[in-house]
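Here's a chain:
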Amino acid sequence: METTAIDEETRMPTSLPDGSTTPARTTRTYFLYALLLVAIVSAGIVHAFTPRQPVPVAATEPLNRHPNAEAAVRYALHQLGTPYVWGGTGDGGFDCSGLVMRAWQAGGVQLPRTTRQMINVGRRITRAQLARGDLVFTNNGGHVQLYIGHGRIVEAPHTGAVVRTGRLPRVVTAYTRVSDG
C-alpha cells in the first residue's frame, strides 16, 4: 500500500499522484491560488448578475433644456468607433463638425457644416453651465466636441483616429448651447 506524506502544518499531502514529492510550501501555494481563483470567479459571477444602477446626474450639473439634446448625444455615442474622415458627414466616417452636425440633426436641429460657422450658433455659456449636448470648441475654434456630461465629451478627433469619448479638455476656446428649447 502506498503512503502519502502529510504536511503537519497544512494537513495536505506533500506528494503528487505519480509518487513524486513536492515541498509543502508549494502545495500550500497551489491551494491558496485555487482558493483565490474560486473567490475571483465567484465574485465575477455575482457581479455579473447584479443589476447596474443608472449614474445619477450631479446636482451641480444643469440639465440641457433643449428637448432634443439627448437625441443628439445618443446619436453621437452610437457612432463610437467610426473612422475619422476629413470632411466626413457620416457615410464612411466623420470629421469633428460633421459628427456634431449629424448628431444635432438627429435631434431635429440644423447646424452649419463647419466649426467656424458653428461657434456662432446658439449662446455662449461657461464651463460651470455645461449640460449634455452643449458644444465645446478647442484649437481656436478649429475643433468641436459634444459634451455628454460628467466632464466627458464625444469627438471625431483627427485623421487616423475614430469617434471616441474623452475628458473635457482643460484649454477651451468656447462653450455654446445650441438652444434652450
Remarks:
- The longest helix spans residues 24-48.
- Residues 69-177 form a domain with the endopeptidase fold (from Nostoc punctiforme) fold (CATH 3.90.1720.10).
- Strands lie at 123-125, 135-138, 143-149, 152-155, 164-167, 174-177.
- Residues 3 and 19 are 9 Å apart (CA to CA).
